[in-house]
Amino acid sequence: MQTLIITGGNIDDAFTLNFIKENPCDLMIAADSGMEFFYRNGLVPNVIVGDFDSVKEGVLEYFRKNNPDIKVMKFQPEKDETDTELALRTAMEAGCEKIWLLGATGTRLDHVLGNIHLLGMAMEQGCECIMLDAHNRIRMLKHGIRLKKAEQYGDYISLFPFTPTVKGLTLTGFKYPLHKYELQCYHSLGVSNEITQEEAEISFEDGILLMMESRE
What is the CA radius of gyration of the chain? Predict the structure, then answer.
């Protein structure tokens, strides 16, 4: 089961509409002002989640009036979780195995960093969660991965340790290979690598990696 979550960061409508067309999901969730994307594009989410403190006036009322089957989950603004976390938890409680998270990047870097942390929450629950925008695809890894050059997202792949160290990191098929390297926090060594072979491999023995694929 796949879920699409649209949250309230920067949304490129053309990119997002094309993504929805090419990646049909079983469940679509609007997190707070993320519902504005659905509203202006004539789409209807299955679930709306949030405290609704940032959505434009009239949008929620429109959905409630015209789409009575939508599940609306309203929370108090004074809560521990962000609206995006509530949406993520809703998806996992519904049995979702893969979550696409769009609208999770933007000018509020505190929210961006918080959303990156949520990738780990999903990972720990056995759910694959991918943050996506027109320029970046972001995933958290606790195991190695193979990447086909033809399927990569842009030209650059950056790796960041999300634990103090990532031990035994080996990169093959990359412009800058590594062998059994101990990648530590507070360094920029993993930024802007490139795949040079038809298939590349990232493997490591211990730790958690944040992988960002980026394009200009």
Answer: 18
